[in-house]
């Protein structure tokens, strides 16, 4: 991977991102019976294209996308849509390799040989048109001892209990009986490859066996060790998990900020 540097700072890998696009989207049926959920549209573009436009705008040109359900549609769409742009797209095809999706941690572990030691992560089925993939946040995280930095959001109606606590810039793994407050993980994060090694993650390097595993347990272990930062994000954000939520965001989306296309 190329690196960015100056005489006064350590070498830092050029920013890269992984977009999660392998899920079945069962709650979105029948819309996802023939279209992968990340290719459903909001406004004039697919959900994945909103992320890619923001990443490119913010100087993140190296992007890896994992696929599974109807996975061939995703590179066909993205390669055509972003042809001639500065984006460098690569793929991790879980359905082709193993016959099933690997969940978040399993999918990241599988893709890790194609990623730098520090990378952005975002779920392809989340709509967050105002989010900035900030280069200063990337550099600060790369220089820290943290294994992850999460962006949390106020709890939406469909997830009132939230996921993690937040105090002085740290994500907290609160026990069930703790009164809170808790916030919802936006599925946008900065991660280090080290999180997917022992003692945090039991999956072998490169996930050669195609183990399916969630990300939450790894994050909670790292939180308990004090190695997960967090920020509260209050911009527009929707987990487009049902046809009703998709319809709502399509109805209420405002046309303020416009990303520069290819």
Provide mean pLDDT, rounded: 90
State the separation between the terminal residues, measured CA to CA. Answer: 22 Å
Listing every helix as H and every strand as E from the N terminus to the C terminus, the arrangement reads: EEEEEHEHEHHEEHEEEEHEEH
Main pleated-sheet profile = 7 strands, mixed
Helix content: 10-25%
* Alpha plus pi helix count: 7
CATH class: Alpha Beta
The CATH topology annotation reads as Spore Coat Polysaccharide Biosynthesis Protein SpsA, Chain A
User: What's the CATH superfamily, by name?
Assistant: Spore Coat Polysaccharide Biosynthesis Protein SpsA, Chain A
Secondary-structure content class: alpha/beta
Q: State the shape.
A: globular
Which characteristics define this entry?
disordered C terminus; two-stranded antiparallel ribbon; 24% helix; globular; disordered N terminus; 262 residues; Spore Coat Polysaccharide Biosynthesis Protein SpsA, Chain A
Explain this structure to me?
- The protein has 262 residues and is of the alpha/beta class.
- The protein has one domain (9-252): Spore Coat Polysaccharide Biosynthesis Protein SpsA, Chain A.
- The chain contains seven helices and 15 strands.
- It has helices at 47-57, 73-81, 94-98, 103-111, 135-143, 216-224, 243-252, and strands at 3-6, 9-13, 16-21, 41-42, 45-46, 62-67, 88-93, 118-123, 126-127, 148-153, 165-167, 170-172, 184-192, 228-232, 238-239.
- Strands 7-6-3-8-13-10-14 form a seven-stranded mixed beta sheet, with helices on both faces. It has a two-stranded antiparallel ribbon with strand order 1-2.
- A hairpin with a 2-residue loop joins β4 (41-42) and β5 (45-46).
- The chain starts with a strand and ends in a 10-residue tail after the last helix.
- Mean pLDDT is 90; it is low at 1-9 and 255-262.
């Amino acid at each position: 991977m190329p690196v960015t540097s100056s005489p006064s700072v350590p070498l830092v890998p050029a920013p890269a991102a992984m977009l999660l696009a392998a899920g079945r989207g069962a709650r979105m049926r029948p819309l996802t019976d023939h279209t992968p959920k990340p290719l459903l549209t909001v406004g004039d573009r697919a959900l994945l294209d909103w992320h890619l436009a923001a990443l490119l705008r913010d100087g993140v040109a190296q992007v890896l996308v994992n696929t599974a359900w109807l996975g061939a549609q995703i590179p066909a769409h993205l390669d055509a849509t972003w042809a001639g742009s500065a984006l460098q797209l690569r793929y991790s095809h879980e359905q082709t390799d193993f016959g099933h999706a690997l969940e978040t941690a399993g999918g990241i572990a599988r893709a890790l040989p194609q990623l730098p030691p520090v990378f952005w992560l975002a779920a392809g089925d989340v709509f967050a048109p105002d989010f900035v993939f900030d280069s200063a946040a990337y550099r600060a995280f790369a220089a820290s001892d943290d294994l992850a930095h999460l962006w949390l959001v106020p709890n939406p109606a469909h997830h009132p209990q939230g996921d993690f606590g937040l105090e002085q810039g740290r994500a907290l793994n609160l026990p069930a009986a703790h009164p809170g407050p808790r916030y919802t993980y936006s599925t946008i994060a900065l991660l280090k490859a080290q999180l997917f090694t022992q003692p945090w993650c039991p999956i072998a390097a490169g996930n050669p066996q195609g183990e399916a595993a969630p990300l939450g347990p790894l994050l909670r272990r790292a939180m308990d060790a004090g190695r997960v930062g967090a920020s509260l994000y209050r911009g527009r954000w929707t987990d487009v998990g049902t046809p009703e939520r998709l319809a709502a965001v399509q109805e209420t989306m405002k046309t303020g900020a416009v990303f520069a296309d290819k």
